[in-house]
Amino acid sequence: MLEYFIRRLLLTIPTFFGCTIVVFFIVTLAPGGPLEQQIRALRGIGAGEASGASSTGGSVIPESALLELKRYYGFDKPIYIQYLTWLGVYPRETESFIVEPETKRSVGNNKTIIVKKEDGSYIVYDGENQSQKSSDDWMIEPQKSETGEERVRVYQTGFSGILTFDFGKSYDYREPVINLISARIPVSFQFGFLGFVISYTVCIYLGIQKALRHNSAFDFATSTLVIVGYSIPGWALGAMLLVLLGGGSFFDVFPLGGMYSQDYSSLSLGEKIVDRMYHFVLPTLAYTIPSFAGLTMLMKNSLLDNLSQDYVRTAFAKGLREQRVIWVHAMRNSIIPITANIGYIIGIFLTSNYLIETVFNIDGIGKLSFSAIGSRDYPIVFSFTVISVIITLIGSIISDLALALVDPRIRFK
Amino acid sequence: MADITIDKEEIDPQTKGSVIQSLSINQRRWRRFKSLKRGYYSLIILIVLYFISFFLPVLINNKPLYVSYKDKTYFPAFRDLGSSLPLLSYMIDKSFVAGEELGEVGNKGNANYRKIQESFDKDNSGTIVMPFYPYDPLEDISTDGNVAFLAPFEENTSGSMRILGTDDRGRDVLSRMSYGFQVSLSFALLLAFIEYVIGIIIGGTMGYWGGWFDVVMQRFKEIWSTLPMLFIIIIVVSITTPNFVLLVALVALTGWIGISSQMRAQFYREKARDYVAAAVSMGASTKSILFKHILPNSLVPVITYLPFTIVGSIGYLVSLDFLGFGLQPPTPSWGQMIGVGLQNLSKWWLVVVPMSAMAITLIMVVFIGEAIREAFDPRTFSRLR
Predict the structure, then answer these.
(1) Do the interacting molecules here have an ipTM over 0.85?
(2) The sheet that has A104-106: what strands, in order across it?
(3) Tell me, what DSSP letter sits at residue A98?
(4) Is any Cβ of chain A less than 8 angstroms from the Cβ of B232?
(5) pLDDT digits (tens, 9 = 90+) for B83-99
(6) CB atoms within 10 A of CB B46
(7) Topology classification of domain A177-406
């Protein structure tokens, strides 16, 4: 068993690399990337139609500035090197300065350097104590300035990337992606967790009741209800709820969106909790209702299946009470298929919710990544891909684990 | 008290007596399908509505069915109908009759037929027959007499009213909703067809031949399914103008994966069955084993999934349109309509109308799905109480 799960975990590694390679190449090679957007911005054209051809002209932007931009984004290197750098197995240029030889230059951390030319090659000295070589490891690359003067680029390299949990820095926010994401994880996680708990409790209970009253009016009515809920995408349901209950046209019961009221900070703790719950109602409904149908039907059918099994007949024949037969004997077996869905559901709740977040104006991971896709903020797009790939892969393993936990007959090999 | 409840279906018609003629499996399926009334009626209603939707240009259009003016006759709506049909659209252009030809002074653009109708009514200078609901989904406030945000049944200044109101640009909501129905359902059907063809071929080959092909394809599918589809669609949409076929192709890129997994499992199961072994021992060719024996038996589960695929596809298109990365803007689509509604929450009909249209359509599809499942996978439950 343990061996099986270790093997499953190891198998996720090639899949992870496969996924990230595919995504990285597609995203990077797609036209209209950040470089072209920068160039457009510099030219003052503004955001128009993206076009691959218009960006290579370079008649307005000096060649050197273009090169500098490319270097900044790392696009001056071949794409496989870019990928390796992103992973963190190829050295990444960290501190980079263009300095004039024989001139002192501050490089941050209260340090200064000075570059001197000796025997045709450049050597970096400490700015304060010019007889001593700089204690840091500087890479040197001679260059020419626009006017043809002598310049030297000094830079440091380091290994940092996804594998060292460095998700990079957002182009738009100019902030490490990890900060942006971790600031939004609680928001998305609250909805994901709440939705998960609610849909499992409601669906299991409803499924049982439906199975016990198979073909009754109650069964028919609830089937229709969950089917209606299933048919409508969650965000569209949210839009409908906003019109009906969010003060759009009919009833002004719930807020239009967001996470808290404007006067949130002035509220007492109790009021804060109420305020949060108040803002949670509609989005949570939009999150959970579409997932009801699948789980409820699964629960119902699986319990019905088990109730017609011989062992249930035997249990009744032994003279056990109906409650005990249903809740102890049949339930244990009926819960198995439901458990198999856990990992998958976790993935759904944690990743694909940008539409609901857009409708309700919730600043969560989904909305962040969606707007990043629009503005080609690659570090965020890649980080989001990595996170969702990992959640999906781990989710399927969690499903298997949960299956093994509830069903002792299952032996994975 | 212990009584046994048995579903009616459990008693096979054949066992009741020799009087009843035995039915083929498909006849029995059709019978069971019809037994679930709401699914059966939904199927009939949807088929009729979808069929009618192809004739929308002669039902809901601002161009007349027939115009006669100064010894000349025109059939603009029928021309539009021709240009809207799948293959004819390459041969027939949308109708264009300049307003000047029909007596509108100084209108070199498309004639405003509703105005012409009024003037014809006054001076009897010609005859004009307008369609049942004379408002086009695309005409906006730039056309005379159109007002933005007209509520359902509210009359505008000139006394005309719209059954379901108008949107932020004065476009008719009922008209847009109807055309949106056709777009959505066509999209879903075409997408489902493509996904099924690809999924069945790939899944079937994986399941039947297995081996290294299966292993490699499994990995490939796992990787392929993580493609950031939304990102790809956004990029493609920003480079080219998205049309219907392109959008279907893009969504189908990853859509076939689920079906292929089903088919693979099904082929694995079926090829180990005795009837396949029998067919092999009788010297049946690979082709006949695949297509005559395994395929029909393997199709059952994927067929029961079809309605749910369609529900998913319609939802996907609506979501894309809502985000603004679906069909090109003037195209009438439910997602775009809901998007407009969300920006104008006080105008309830802008959200409620497309939402209801979508919900009713999807619910009917799900009902059909239930009936199909009932037909192909009859579960009979007998339990002790």
Answers:
(1) no
(2) A104-106, A112-118, A121-126
(3) E
(4) yes
(5) 877 777 777 777 777 77
(6) 18
(7) MetI-like fold (1.10.3720)
